[in-house]
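At this stage, I put together one protein's amino acid sequence and its backbone structure tokens, which the following lines show:
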Amino acid sequence: MAEWEVTLERPAYDLTIFKLHCGNLTLKIYTKGERVLRIEAVLHNTELFHCGRSLDRFPRLITKLKGILERFMDALSLIDQCFVSDETLEQLPKPSVVGKAKVGGIDFNKERMRWAGQAVLALAASTGSFTASGLAEQVCSATGQAFSQYNPRHAAYDLKKLRAKNMVQRVGRSRRYEATPSGLKAMAALIAMRDHVIRPLLASTMNRITSRGTQNPTPLDQCYASLRTHMQDLLQQLGVVA
């Protein structure tokens, strides 16, 4: 599987370029003027799609690139506006049934489940649909694990648990899967809340992390500082030792 690379460039004061590289494919987002945001898909080698290089194959290449770009934009919009309801939080840990098989609940506090969720988010923004093998390869590529530690059998079971919660669905009768819109929102929200809200705030109450951005605080830095203060007050009111 090709390695992913993310770059963020600011060549000019009013220009920001976000690039997502994967092998011979690049997805590019950049501003053009004050009110225009452009998104492009760049193919560096036509052999990736096995369409040939003749001019009569050009429409087929454009159609494939358009599909990739639309899937990326759809996934990005869902992830950007992530959301998880209290009902979903209550139901996630409970066992479910897929067909006639009973599967366990989902706990995003466990590393393996978080790896699977993050891999689904990445694949949804790139390929759209994927196989259990593709999910296993993505997890191993992102975490540095050996294929023996997380293989297609592990991925298939995790996909079954995600299917039981309607976060992932099978594509027709094939062995390919795709994330549901509500599933993308919920997985992005759960991972973001744990990694960027709950963990930093709990760590700050025990003085395990240093304050960031003290010289030139960004709006995000200011939000963290305010939340830390209110978190201390809340823990004291609840009788929780910080």
